[in-house]
Amino acid sequence: MAARLLRDGHHLALVQRGDVDPGLRAAAETAGRRVTVHRADLTEPAAARAAVEEAADAHGRLDALVLNAGRIDRHPAADFPLDVWEATLALNLTSPFVMAQTAARRFMAQGSGGRIVFVASVLAFQGGILVPAYAATKGAVRQLVMALANEWAAEGIGVNAVAPGYVETELTSALRADPERSAALGARIPAGRWAQPEDVAGAVAYLCSPDAAYVHGQTLPVDGGWLGR
What we know:
Layout: H1 2-7, E1 12-15, H2 22-31, E2 35-38, H3 45-59, E3 64-67, H4 82-110, E4 114-119, H5 132-152, E5 157-164, H6 173-176, H7 179-188, H8 197-207, E6 219-222
Parallel strand pairs: 1-2, 3-4, 4-5, 5-6
Helix pairs in contact: 3-4, 4-5
């Protein structure tokens, strides 16, 4: 997502645990774009809010916010640990709301409008298996996007979400390591393959672009046709 937004002309403020990918840093230098890194424990609302403020201050303004931090834990619902449930809600739902709220205030102060893109999931539409906390947060994100759009669209703030299907990332490593589950999931995807991160990045870039100026409160599936099957 960061690489695609960089190619589209954005400066980048990254909230992440590690260092900037060397390839991304080199691409930014070649394009004459700034990249800053901000550290925060996004399960803490105050830290989540501060990360947005620091990023905006570092660049002098804020134009778009992409909320892609998240976690998923697999346990039978009857045995799902309450501490894991609460940690999932903190990172997947409370943190994105606090960061969106902070960004919206900055957009309004700037008088510029802006773009907020949440990362939901196809489990915003389905229940999933062994992931009750994740499914609950992603369903809530879908509702939150609509609620925020109702209030902020008139301010020129576009609030939307992407809902990725099954993407080859660290988050799905357990599924891909299970031959039976991986084969069953792949067989159901009409596109005939799992998504690559770039597939989702294109949708995020669209929702951050002027082409999406009249798109508000939507959750866009990027799932290879999964939900239609």
